[in-house]
Structure of Lon protease homolog:
Amino acid sequence: MSRSTLLPVLTLPNPIVLLPTARIQLSLDEDVGTHLIELVQRSEVQLVIGTVPCTSPTTIHPWGTAARVVRVVRPISRASQRVYHVTLHGLSRIHFPDTSSGPFAPNELIELRAEYPPADGPPSPESIAPFRAAASKLLDSLAQDATQQSRRDVYVKISHMIEEVSDDRAPWMADVIVAGINKVEYADKLAYLSAAGSDDRLRRATELFVKQASITEVTKKIAQSIDESLSKQQKEFFLRQQLAAIQRELNNLNRPPGAANAPGPGSAPSIGSSSDLDDNEQSEADDMAEIKAKIEAMAKDSEERKMAVREWKRLQRIPSGSVEHGVIRNYLEWITSIPWPSSAAYADVTNNDKLRDRAFLANARRQLDEDHYGLEKIKKRLIEYLAVVRLKQLQAEREARSPSDAIVPVTPPPNSELEGNKASRRRVEGDATSRALALIQKALNSKPTAGASQSDVGANDEVKDRQLVKVPHPAKPPSGGPKQQRGAASKAVKGPILLFVGPPGTGKTSLGQSIARALDRPFQRISLGGVRDEAEIRGHRRTYVASGPGSIVQALRKAGRPDPVILLDEVDKIGQSNFHGDPAAALLEVLDPEQNHSFNDHYINVPIDLSQVLFICTSNSLETISAPLLDRCEIIQLSGYTYDEKIHIANKFLLPKQLKANGLTPEHVSLTQPALMHIATHYTREAGVRSLERAIGAVVRYKAVEWAEYSDSTGITDIAALPSLEKSEGKTYKKVVEEHELEKILGIARWDEEELHREERRGLVYGLVVTGMGEGGILPIETTAVPGSGQLKLTGSLGEVIKESGELALSWVKSHAYDLYITKLRSQDPLKFPEPIDIHLHLPSGAVKKDGPSAGIAMTCAFVSLLTGACVPTNIAMTGEVTLRGRVGPVGGIKEKVLGAHRAQVTKVILPWANRKDVEHDVPLEVRAEMQFVFVRTMEEVLEAAFGKGVLNWRGNMVVMESRL
Ligand code: ADP
C-alpha cells in the first residue's frame, strides 16, 4: 500500500536529478529561499521536502526523491539574485500521481501530492549476480584510471563493499553507485529514478554499469589513439618550426647584409636576438652568433668572406654532433679571428697616430736607449729604419687622402675629415666584437651599395660613415667598393726586412720588442729553430687529421691586428728542402714584399695579405742562411759586448730586472763592481749577457733566501731598519755582495782552470774562431810528432776546407823547411829526416764541427813550432787564411774573434792586413787600447810576430813589416 501525502516539492532544473542516498547543493532565488527558510523554521523536526526533475520548462517527471534539508545558507553578498544555498540529502523515491496539473517551472517550491512506493522485498539472486559483476568491473576500471590516489582508494573500498553487502541491501548499494557516477546521462538517471522495484532497479543499474564500463573503455582507447596522433602532430609541428628557422637563417645569409628590404633589427633574426635555434642550446647559439657576426664584419666581396660564407652554409646543413661539424666550425673560428687587413673593423685600429706624432723619432730613440745600453751604431740604423717606415706611411696616407682620382667626399661631411676621424676613432673603442656587432647592425639597417636603385647615397649609412667613396658613374654600379674604402691603413709600408745577426743574448729579441713599442704595434715571436716541416709555417691542409694553420697565421691571430711586428727567430736554423716540403721556401714567400700580399696558408686556403706586417729576422750566423733569403734582408750585426759594456748592462738592466723578478729592491742587494767583473770573467764567457743574467739571478736568489731567514728569525721586515753590522749581535744580513763571496754562492769559477792550463808548449798555438752560436773565442791548435811515415793526421771534427788548409800549411812549412833551418838540404822532407815521423794535428772540443780557412796561419805556426822547437807565447792568438805562396788572406768575424780573445785575456792578436778596417770600425776603443794588433801580409811576417823577432833563424835576408795600431 502506498502512502500519499502533500509535500513541498522543489522543481529541479534540467539536468539536475537527486537520487536517493545522494547529496546535492543548489542555489535558490530569494523568494524560494525565504519560503524554504520559513518552512524550516516552522517545522519541528528536520524538514523533509520532495524534489522532482523538470523534464522540460513546463513539465515534471512522475518520479522524484524525498530529501532532508540539511542546511539553508543565506550568503552575505546581496549583489547576485540567487543568494540562497540549500543542501539536500536524498532519502527515498516518491511518485507524483498528478503531473498533469502543471504547468510547472524549474526552481520553484510548490505543494504537490506525493506517494511513497511500498517497500519491496529482497531482489532475486538472478539480478544480484550480474549486478555485482558489472559493478565490480566498472569500479575496477575506474580505480585504474583514477589519477588521484585517494579516489582510487574510494573505488577499491566500494568494490569491496559490493562483495560483502547483503542481498537485501543490494538495491541501496545500486543507488549509492549510480549516484556516485557523474557521467550517467540525464535520461538514464530519470529511468533509474523511475525503477521502484528492487529487481528492476538492480537490472537497470547493471545495464548502466555495463554501458558506463564500455564507454570508459572506448574513451580510453580513443584518448590513447588521440594521444598518439597528437604527439605525432606535435613532433611534426616542432620539426617544421625548426625547418622554418633554418630556412630563415639561410635566406638571411643569401641576402646581402645591407639589403633594402631587411626589416628592422627587432624583427630580423639579428645577432643576439633569440630565435628557435637559440632556444635549444643557448651557449652554442651564442658562439655561432659570434662567428656569424664576425663573418658579417668581413669586407664585402673579399675572398675570405666568400669562403667563410660558403663554409657557414655547409655548417648549417651538417648535424651538429658530427665530426665534420667540428672541423668546419674550427675552421670558421680561425678564419674569422684573423685580423684581415681588408676588414673595416681594423681600418681604424691600424691608423697609426704614433707615426704622425712629430716627436716620433725622438720618442723612438728614447725607447731604444731606455731598453738597451750601448749599441750606438745599431740604434742609429734602427732610427733610420723607423724614419723610412714613418715617411712611407705618411706618404701613403697623403695619397689616400688627396682629392684627385675621383675620390671625393660624398654628402657634405659635418666638418672636414678630422671630424670623421674623431668619429671613427670613437668607434674603435670597445672590443673587436662589439665593433663587429655595430657594423652588422648598421649593415642590417642600411641599403645595399650595389645596384642602380641604390644611387640614393644619402640613405647609405655605411658609405656616409667612411666618408670617401668613388663617385659612381650613373650608368655603372660602383665597383670595388671595399678596396677603395679601406683607406690609408691598407697601403702596404714595405720597408727593408731587418736581419739581426749575432751571438745569443746580445739583445736581438729585445731590440725587436723595442721597435714594436716605438711603433705602438703588437709584438709576436716565431721561433724557426728546428722547423723541418713546411706545414709549421704554412699550416696543414684541412683534409689532414688535426689540421690547423701555420705559425704565421697563429701569430697574426694572437696579435689581433693586421700590422704587428713579427720576429722570426733563428732563421739560420730553419730546415732546408726535405720530404716534408721546403720550410725555407715558405719563409721566402712570407718575407718577399712582392709575394706576401697574398700569402697562402694551406689551412685557411684564402690568400692573406701580410704586406702590413713588419718582419724582423734574427740569426746567430750568416753561413747557413740561403742566398735568396739573405738577399731580401738588411743585415745588422750584433757582435757581443766587451766586459765594460757587460758591467754597464748588468748594473743598469740585468740586476734591477733580477731584483724585481725575485721580489727584492736595490736596498736589499748590491754587487760591488769587482764582484760583477769577476762573474763576467770567471763564471761566464760569452758574447751576450744571458749567462751573466743567469748568474746574477742566482746571486740575487741566494740573497733573497738569506734575507728571508734573517727577517724570520729577527722579526725585522723593513730593510731600512736593518742595524749596522757593528751594532747587531748574533745573526746579520749583509746586503753588499763582494768578490770573495762568489765562490760560496755560485760555486767554483768555471774558467779558472783553463786559464791555468794555457801554457807555452812546443807545437801549440792559439787560433781565433767564431762558433756556430756566433760567439768568438780562442781555439788551441795542438800538434805532435809521432813515429810514422811522413803522414799528416787531422782530427777534431774537421770539415773539408779546414783539412785542406791544414795540408796547405804543411806544404808551406815543407817548402820553407830549409830556410827555417829545419832541414839541412832543400831536397829533404822534414817529416822523413832526421827520423820518419807523422804529424798529428788536433783541434779540441772534438765533438764540435769546425770548418773554414781562417785557421791557416795558426796551423802553419803550429807546424813551425813543432819542427823548430820554438814556442809561441800564450798571450798571442791569430787568425788568417794562408795561400800556398805564403800570402795571408782576410777572414770574417773579426770583431767577435777579437772580443773573444780579449775575454780570454789575450793581449796580442795577429790578423790579416786586409782586416785592418774591421778592427778600426768594429772593435771598441777600450778593447783596442788593451790589445796589440799585428797586421800581416805574408807568412814570414806572421812567424816574426808570433815567435818574436830573431827567434827563428832564416837563411838569407827577410824583410818583416810590422804594424801596430
Ligand atoms: P737574443 O735574442 O739576442 O738571444 P735577448 O734579446 O733575448 O737576446 O737578450 C737577452 C737578455 O739580455 C734580455 O734580457 C735583454 O734585455 C738583455 N740585453 C741584451 N743586450 C742588452 C743591452 N744592450 N742593454 C740592455 N739589456 C740587454
